[in-house]
Every structure is written in C-alpha cells, then in structure tokens.
C-alpha cells in the first residue's frame, strides 16, 4: 500500500524573537529572549502541538507564526514562499490563510457586537462580499460549528464559555484559512466542553484539510488532539516526535519531567486514529 507524501504548508528556520524593555527610572534597556533557533515544518492536514510550561516562549512563537509579530531573526515560508519581507498589502492578503484563536474568547470578542457581526467581521475587514452576503456567511458558519443561526443577534455574554469558543472558531473560519493556530484555546473549558470542541475540530480538519498548531501545557489533551508534538523549554525546541513515540520513548530530560508530572486520567488516548 502506498501513502501520500505530506506537503509542507508552513516552515520556519532558525527563528528567534527577543523583546527590548526599558527599565523605569534608568536609561538602560533589558533584552528578553522569548525563543531562539526554532526549526519546524507544519504539514497540510496535520496537527502539531507545541507544549511546555508557562514562560517557555510558546505564545510568542504563536504570534510570529500568525504573522502578528515580526521575529527578530530567521525566516518563515508559507507554501514555499518567504513571508519575511512582504509588502503591507501582500501581508494583509496572506492573513486570510492563517488565523489565531486565543485562550479567552470573552476578551477576544467585541461585547457590543452580535454573534453574526463578530463572525462576519473578518469579511468586512477584508472587504469580501456585500453586508447581506457577510451576514449569510456568518449564519452558515454558526450552524457549521454547532450554534443555532437563530442566535445570530445575541451578544457574546449571552452564550456559555464553550459556545463563545465555537463563535471564535466560526470567525476564524470565515476567510477559509489553511492554518489555524490555537493558543491554549481549550484550557479555560471543562473536560466535557473540551471533548466537544475537539470533536468539532477533528470534523473540520477532515472536511477542509486544515492544518492546526496547538499551543498547550496539557499533555493528556495533547495526546487526544495532536499528530506530532514539539516540546519547548526555555525558548528552544528540545524534542519533536509523533505523539505515540514521544509518550512511549521521551529522550530529553525535560520531556520526561513533563510526563512524570502529568496527572493520570482515565481515557487518555496516545495518538489519533488513522
């Protein structure tokens, strides 16, 4: 039996990011290294989880992968083309292909907008379609993610936490992206809601060949969701393997430490079904 070779969607090489902070009351500046020498390839239709403790550099890396921040060094390729020196209008168009879903949907959703307005906002910003088309598309997306289109006029605070995260997913899908970056997007949900959202993401990935980057510190959750895992420690990728191989044969001491600290939970599933 032959297998179809995986196609790279996003690649980063020797990527690094640092922030310069001005010290109060003095004239010195402090340079803080967020991450350094990151080399990763994200394949079409594959979920790669990036795990590590708080302060490891995961969220800074996520913002650079989403092209919301410029890395300090290194290069990023999307579909084989370098994106580091794109013109502003070219970057604006490319943002359609890469969407970032944040940890807290409440802070990411405008509380004064209705659900339909929130989901249609990317279409409005990108000037895609008429207002009637944008609303129609928003209601279609609500149904796609398991929200009733009849609730399109409701405000975000009228929805539960799980429903708000579904709303955030619907908004991210409005521009038909190829890559979704989930920055701890499930960590504020209870286990039941996490499983429901994971099932939704699995279905969306299968239907639309989506590529996921899943930023997390929750290894049991990662074992359910990801195909590959990259372990990040002190701003560097220290190990990168398939989920099953990493859980069975961790090489790095930090990875073994993370696995040792993981609380056993009934039903932990090491790896995804084919």
Indicate the proportion of strand residues: 25-35%
Structural class: alpha/beta
N-C termini distance: 14 Å
Radius of gyration: 19 Å
What best-fitting shape do the alpha-carbon axes yield? globular
- Reading the helices and strands in chain order gives EEEHEEHEHHHHEHEHEEHH
Main sheet: strands, sense, barrel: 6 strands, mixed
Q: Which strand order does the major sheet show?
A: 6-7-8-3-9-10
The strand count comes to 10
The low-confidence runs, each spanning 5 or more residues with pLDDT under 50, are none
Helix content bin: 25-40%
Number of helices: 10
> What integer is the average pLDDT?
89
List keywords for this structure.
274 residues; 6-stranded mixed beta sheet; alpha/beta; 10 helices; 10 strands; 4-stranded antiparallel beta sheet; single chain
Task: Give an account of the 3D structure.
The structure is a single chain. Helix content is 35%, strand content 26%. The chain has 274 residues and is α/β, with parallel strands linked by helices. It is built from 10 helices and 10 strands. The two termini are 14 Å apart. A hairpin with a 2-residue loop joins strand 4 and strand 5. A 6-stranded mixed sheet has the order 6-7-8-3-9-10, sandwiched between helices. Strands 2-1-4-5 form a 4-stranded antiparallel sheet, covered by helices on one side.
What does the secondary structure layout of this molecule look like, with pairings?
Layout: E1 8-22, E2 29-43, E3 47-51, H1 58-65, E4 73-78, E5 81-82, H2 88-94, E6 98-101, H3 105-108, H4 115-125, H5 131-144, H6 161-173, E7 179-183, H7 191-208, E8 211-216, H8 219-225, E9 228-233, E10 236-242, H9 243-248, H10 253-261
């Amino acid at each position: 039996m032959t297998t179809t070779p995986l196609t790279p969607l996003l690649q980063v090489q020797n990527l690094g990011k640092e922030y310069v902070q001005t010290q109060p009351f003095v004239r010195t500046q402090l340079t803080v290294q967020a991450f350094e020498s990151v080399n990763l390839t994200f394949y079409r239709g594959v979920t790669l989880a990036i795990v590590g403790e708080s302060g490891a550099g995961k969220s800074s890396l996520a913002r650079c992968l989403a092209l919301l921040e410029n890395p300090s060094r290194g290069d990023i390729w999307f579909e084989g083309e370098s994106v580091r020196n794109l013109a502003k209008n070219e970057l604006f168009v490319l943002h359609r292909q890469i969407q970032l879903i944040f940890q807290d949907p409440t802070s990411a959703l405008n509380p004064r907008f209705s659900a339909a307005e929130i989901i249609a906002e990317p279409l409005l910003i990108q000037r895609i379609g008429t207002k009637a088309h944008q609303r129609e598309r928003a209601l279609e997306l609500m149904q796609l993610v398991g929200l009733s289109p009849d609730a399109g006029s409701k405000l975000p605070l009228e929805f539960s936490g799980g429903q708000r995260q579904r709303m955030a997913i619907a908004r991210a899908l409005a521009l038909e992206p190829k890559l979704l970056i989930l920055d701890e997007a499930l960590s504020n949900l209870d286990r039941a809601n996490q499983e429901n959202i994971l099932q939704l993401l699995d279905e969306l990935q299968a239907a639309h060949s989506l590529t996921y980057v899943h930023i997390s510190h929750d290894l049991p959750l990662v074992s359910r969701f990801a195909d590959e895992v990259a372990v990040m420690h002190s701003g560097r990728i220290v190990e990168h393997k398939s989920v099953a191989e990493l859980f069975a044969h961790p090489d790095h001491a930090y990875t073994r430490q993370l696995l040792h600290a993981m609380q056993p939970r009934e039903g932990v599933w090491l790896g995804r079904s084919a």
